[in-house]
Amino acid sequence: MPNLGGPELLIVLAVLLLLFGATRLPKLARSMGQAGKEFKEGMKDGYRAEPVEGPCPFCEVKVPADSKFCPGCGKSSDEIVAQKSREAAEKKPA
Ligand SMILES: [Zn+2]
């Protein structure tokens, strides 16, 4: 019977940890980093891709594309974009 004492067991565990760490940790770190990067880029894209333009969904006053607030009701561009996407989502059935 092989002598598997504490130190040998620890070495085996260390080797297993190294093997698992070498194959799984970089993958995990990469996918986490990628998700974080895509999330950030998505936030940026969302901000750029939805300029406030056309009529305000609250008061129908035309909002200039680069305006931060509606000149009619004073709603912020964030609120207007959110309301517009909400209305768009309501129009088309899921
Ligand atoms: Zn308005």
Describe the protein.
By secondary structure, this protein is mainly alpha-helical. It folds into two domains: 1-49; 51-94, no CATH class. The protein has two helices and two strands. The protein has helices spanning 6-49, 77-91; strands spanning 54-55, 62-63. It has a two-stranded antiparallel ribbon. The longest helix is centred in the N-terminal third of the chain and has 44 residues, at 6-49. The protein starts with 5 loop residues before the first helix and ends with a helix. The site of zinc ion has 8 residues, from loops.
Short summary of the structure?
It contains two helices and two strands, in the order αββα. With 94 residues, it is mainly alpha-helical. The model has no long low-confidence stretch (mean pLDDT 80).
Question: Features of this protein?
Answer:
94 residues, binds zinc ion, mainly alpha
Q: Describe the biggest sheet? A: 2 strands, antiparallel
Number of strands: 2
Q: Helical stretch count?
A: 2
Q: Approximately what portion of the residues adopt beta-strand conformation?
A: under 5%
Name the average pLDDT. Answer: 80
C-alpha end-to-end distance:
66 Å
* Shape verdict: rod-shaped
Describe how the helices and strands are arranged.
Elements: H1 6-49, E1 54-55, E2 62-63, H2 77-91
Antiparallel strand pairs: 1-2
The chain binds zinc ion.
Zinc ion is lined by residues 56, 58-59, 61, 70, 72-73, 75.
